[in-house]
Amino acid sequence: MNGSLKRLIFFLLIALGIQSCVNDIQKIKKITFKSTDPDEKTADLVLTYTDSGQAKIRLIAPLAESFAKPNKVIKFREGIKLEFYTKKGALLSSLTAKYGEIDELNGTMFVKDSVRMFNNVKKQELQTEELFWTRKDSVIFTNKLVIIKTPKVLLYGDGIRAKQDFSSYKFIKPKGKFDLD
Asked: Taking the mean position of all CA atoms in its chain, how far away is CA 141?
C-alpha cells in the first residue's frame, strides 16, 4: 500500500503539472499583441525599384513598420529617404523626411516633417512640411507652403505639383521670387 500510495501521488502530481502547462491562446494574444502593433517590422531597410535591370528608385529607412489592417500601410516613423535615378543610372534627385507612410492599396505616399527634395542636375532644393505622391500619375504635390532654392533664385508659394523626380514643377499659388547674389 505504501508503494501504491506513492504511485498515486506521483501520477496526481504529473496530471496537475500537465494541466497547469495549458495556455489559453486568446489570453496570450491579449497580453502580448495590441491592435496598434505592426504586423511586421524591418530595420535598416534599403529597397531598390528597378525597370529592365536599371535602378529607378531607392527607398532607405532606419525602420519600416507594416500594418495589414485597416489598410495595407507601411509607416516610416524614424524617417525616410528616396533616391530617383536617370535611365543611365545616375542619381537625379533625392527626397528626405522625418516621417512617411505608403498606402499600398491606394498607391499613394505621404511624407511630413522637414521634407526636402534636391534635384542634382538643376541644383534645386524644395522645402515643405508635407508632400503627397500618387503612383497613378507619378506626381508629387502639396497645398502647404513650399520654398524652392536654386543657385540664383529663391521661389516660394502655397502648393506645388511636380514630377516625382522633381525635374519639372508648377506652383499652385506662387507668392514671390528673390534673386540671390
From this structure: 17
